[in-house]
Fold these 3 entries.
Entry 1:
Amino acid sequence: MGYLNRSKHSLIAMATAMVIAAFLVPVQADADQLKAAHFMPPMHPMDRGVMTPLAEELNAATDGALTIRIYPSGELGKGPVQQYKRVVTGVADIAFGIPAYTATQFPKTVMIHMPGLFDSGEAATNALWDNLDAISDEYGETKLLGLWANNPSVLISREKPVRTLADVKGMKIRTPNPVMAEVVEAWGGIPVSMPTPEIYNAMNTGVIDAVIIGPSGIRSYKLNEIGKHATVNIPSAVDSFYLLMNKQSWEGLSDEHKAKLDELTGRDLSLRGAKAFYAAGQAGLKLAKDSGIEIIEIDAAADAEFRSAMADALAALVEKTSKETGTDASKIIAGFSGK
């Protein structure tokens, strides 16, 4: 009986010690962790240049009380097109995506894709934030963390070089957004829509003849392995990108953590994204040249020919967007361009 009493007292002492220790040692399990989803490989410029730095800075700013875990390569669900749905439904707390993949959700935002508006992604990014009031309703279901653009796209072809408008006729060309799809059709090409991770196989097997893509995509998607020619100054547009947060996840944060996240996101984060794309684009063009891809610059006459051929298609697209959104799309474009 004495032995049982001693055992009982020992158990009570151990339990008491554990309770005391629980109060003395910080419990990291109470930290909030946000799930961030994207569909690129972990070494993609947007992971290395935007999302990973954001995760590190948020961890430091909150002393580890609020962290971000990044799920690359579609780990929270395959299919880049579904990124918007994933963040709205809460599959991911934060998601990186491309407005053009769900253009019906972002008809005004994708007006930034009009060819000839910008010479750089940084200028386009500032234009988006300067005119955010005109497009903010498209992000009403989420918390907008970032919105930025890359540099104007280049055209990389598998076999046939593109130097003039006539060269495009009949070519199956992957286009990055609905605006460029209309443009390619006006040029006499056949626009093909597909997510960027599918480009390599499609081009390698001849499903498509060429791709219009931001120059950073050359390295990210190994297009230097399958392309032979790159037309680098064809009249094209920038692409846009978002970083969105689930609304319930945002509202569930403390006021302190909301303030910290606001400090680390917005225009400054977006400009970081644009600059990361620029650096990656320069590296992509160098890789293309080093890999033996012919770098083509069209002359002034060809440039005028391309622009003339796409003018009516762009005007029709502006009119269509105005009717569908109940807004003046030409006014939105004028706001973007500062005219």
Note: The chain has a mean pLDDT of 90.
Entry 2:
Amino acid sequence: MRYVSTRGGMDPVTFRDAVILGQAPDGGLLLPEVLPDVSKELEGWRQLSFEDLAFEVIRLFADDIDDAVLKKILKEAFATFAVEDTIPLVQFDGLNVLELFHGPTLAFKDVALQVLGGLFEHILEGSLGRLNVLGATSGDTGSAAIAGVRGRPNIDIFVLFPDGRTSLMQELQMTTVLDDNVHCLGIEGTFDDCQELMKSIFGDLAFKEKYSLGAVNSVNWARVVTQIVYYVYAALKFNVPVSFSVPTGNFGNVFAGYLAKSMGVPIDRLVLATNENDILARFFETGRYTRGVVQHTLSPSMDIQVASNFERFLYLYFGRDSERLIEFLGTFSEQGSAEVDYVKSEDSFFIATSVGEEETRGTIKTTYASYDYILDPHSAVGVAAASRFDLGSPVISLATAHPAKFPDAVNEAIGKDVATHSRLTNLISQPTRKTLLPADEEAVKNYLATNAR
């Protein structure tokens, strides 16, 4: 399988090259030339474990990775999860929750980033190369990426995060990792600032090549393809088409669901759930993509106004027309707003809505009272959004983080201390290391130039 850039400025590349490139040299994102149709495979996949299903799905996209090697990478990746079935589906009367947070950093990002770390190591071993991974995080990606590559030979990781705008536990999960190959950079700004810095640095092709920069954010195709797997896995737990409610900020997680549907997986609708940073919800209501001011909320991993993976969706929505995409992105960059002729209808695949702070708290409280089940604020946004619609199909809400990562918000909503996890409690007394930098490209580049190997 070959991969092309959304912006049309590069020749097709292999899966291995797509993993190492992360972002295309022309600034675009990578997508396969053709999506496989898996509709005839689904019945045979229904009884597979998550690990075995991941092999069957990912091998369709990674046909230049030996089957035995891919199986080994997946086995090692999912062995880091605390439960045997990796991503258990928890079912109550009227509530289905897919728990994606049993990995080493207790967030859904672990599912893909444990795999990506193994892919990086395998590909680099084959080329005798070295990679300096640069990532930006609004909270969970950073720690999950660090957990995926810490201590691996031939890889250094540099994570930009908005200083003071993640939860304490999210920051500690990054800054208490003291391995020599880990660099935590607290940026004086918002996540959008971090993401813009990362994109701009990747856009300097000479700098990217000189310092062998690779991407770990959801711009890396390997992240998206691994996330497709859990949509297939959960959908096959039912004998009828299902819908998913997905809390999202950067559009990567929900985009994987869109691709799963496009591949023939029986998915009815996707509920796109945002917090008060509602740029995506507004787009799917109006067709207008308009940047706002980042709001600091109870669900900080979704405090995003510019969704990096949205470019992939637009490329497909425009019929793979790179010129039209570039025109849209140019208008948005210059004016802070751009629009398409998107028409919302009663049977639209995406159903988008924004959930406020009080409703998030209320959902945490009522879910605990009704089911003795604890949601983190991000997962609560998804559950609240799902409750607004009568879809006529089973709805699976994605639980994207363990509630103990956000103890203040969860405990306040419920009224007692219930959000705990020994893995996180132990971090409070650990030594930390981070470097504070201004939201300035030259400052970040100077740090990279000094510390990259």
Note: Residues 176 and 432 are 4 Å apart (CA to CA).
Entry 3:
Amino acid sequence: MLSVYNTLTKKKEKFEPINPPDVKMYMCGPTVYDFFHIGNARSWISADIVRKYLEYKGYKVTFAMNITDIDDKIIKKANEENENIIVISEKYIDAFLEDLEKLGIKEADVYPKATEHMDDILGMIETLEEKDYAYNINGNVFYDVSKFEEYGRLSGKKIEELETGARVEVNEEKRNPLDFSLWKKAKEGDPYWDSKWGRGRPGWHIECSAMSCKHLGESFDIHAGGNDLIFPHHENEIAQSVASNEKPFVKYWLHFGFLNIEEEKMSKSLGNFFTAREVLDKYSVEAVRLFFAQAYYRGPLNFSDELLAAAQKGLEKLKNFVENINVELTKSNTEGTIPDLDVKSYEDKFINAMNDDFNTAQAVAVIFDFVKDVNRTIAENENISTTFYDSVKAFLERAAVGVLGIMNFEIEGEGISERDMSYIQSMIDKRAVAKKEKNYALADEIRDELKSLGIELKDSKEGTTYKIVK
């Protein structure tokens, strides 16, 4: 039974979708004015693992991830570069989607853009005004927080404490300093849309409410995002959506911890960040995903080159294992023996770990234990059946590849195909005979020939394995 920690109720709950086996999931996406940093990537990879595990369990997930393509930061960037905001936003949307693919993140079913949902946004604001949750002051429309009794439930904040003015926008037009913008009157030179209140553009919070309800329905299963979005963004989304639709908004709220540098949250405003592109130039996507998966998704995680290098080193064990399995599959046949290693028991342990609020750290530990035990089994047995290797590979492809994204069974290197594997193995066997006959010159010649083809040999007491390199 899958249990998830729900930020709304502050406890773990049994996961029961509104309309099983369908699951509707919304993830807060980027404001597209720059390349995203590796802290953003942590949230998006965590959401990707959650989504893939739900699919692994047989749920049909509809996944939406919004794109904020109109915002003060985008306007500022466009002004700095003397460029149209459309050019700026499209540039970084393309970069965003490209980098998601590099990170092994499955494509969303829909990437709704704020600028393409203006009618939905305006409609929701008008509904809020009609129901007396919103008010217009000189073309600026605000949400009246005092009208929503449950305001603060998600974040655990009390309105009385917030009204001191801390961490809220100062605006003399507001009735209450906690009230937030639904529609912003256009400034000179800014992009705008026409509305009943005059020319302007939407506030950030109303965009997500309108887009999520448009694509997933007025009530849906999961809303995910970083911890920094709990207040005010997600708190405001609830206030808007519940007041507008008069229905429960989201059943489960999932939030991902900060990525810190020297115990301080990584952010663009602090300037202490690395883009995902910069990190992927130095480390493999599997290493990055392993680094994140080894920690609890809700807690903070310190980032450093040393920690990522350690993840990369740990990944070598998995890469070597993949190479060994691929080699053994070429040598084995169905007539071989099946060792006494219960693959299903490891998959059960993996499921138990992930069922406990997506405990990826424990799930990763199961994968490494499994790899160690399979290696020992191979060393202790001869003439192992292809059936055994197939079952090993199938489990890892479902769990380590399909859910966690920390392994890759595809053969690396250009110009090398799977059909060449039998040739490679024959050359390894020929070299083994040469070494046994003490014909080291021939053995070295074979090694050099394979190296020229991009095949690197590794000798050990268990035998010779190979790695295809670029």
Note: The CA atoms of residues 27 and 65 lie 5 Å apart.
